[in-house]
Here is the input.
Amino acid sequence: MDESYSLPNNIAVITPQELLQSGKVVLRLAHLYEAGEDKEYSVVCGVELKKLVSGKKIKKVTEMTLSGNQERKKMEKR
Here is the structure.
């Protein structure tokens, strides 16, 4: 992670995992507060991926389900 960058207070990195054979990275992020749980932190926020994975080139980002076995947009169509 870029030394000058810090995640928002309501976001945590759960699992950073590099898949060596494919060169892909699985990065699980979690929002720590549910809607309505906290006045200040239960808000939508953003993460700067380029700063979070500094030193790596990002070619493509795919939002997956938490288990990582399917794309989120395909799951939502069900």
